[in-house]
Design brief:
Length: about 120
């Protein structure tokens, strides 16, 4: 059975519905005892910066800040694409706790060890 589960998230404030659903899936994966990471690329990197999750709440869904807190408290991690992060002018000090800069090679290594991935 596959144990490594990655959620590739390329949206945040630009598509809050898609970003929220991705975090619902990430929470479900970690609650199912999967070794779970959320790989943030493109606009998704914003989700790993201070204050962004606070402002996202899709009607009928759990607020993003609650999804992020629950995910991180359960042992989840955010891997943030360095070029995408740098392109948007962020600094490492902008990252929320539980987030690290990690590029495609780390994601590929993770997935090559009994992993699967979904993308949003």
């Amino acid at each position: 059975m596959l144990n490594n589960f990655a959620v590739n998230l390329t949206h945040s404030i630009d598509d809050t519905d898609r970003a929220t659903v991705a975090m619902v899936v990430a929470n479900a994966a970690i609650a199912s005892s999967k070794n779970t990471v959320v790989f943030l690329a493109s606009e998704g990197v914003r989700l790993a910066t201070k204050g962004v999750a606070d402002g996202i709440h899709e009607e009928g869904l759990t607020p993003m800040i609650e999804l992020v807190r629950n995910y991180l408290a359960a042992g989840g991690a955010f891997w943030v694409c360095p070029p995408c992060f740098n392109k948007r002018g962020y600094k490492e000090s902008d990252l929320i706790e539980g987030s690290t800069l990690a590029g495609a090679p780390k994601l590929v290594e993770f997935l090559s060890k009994d992993g699967t991935c979904v993308s949003y």
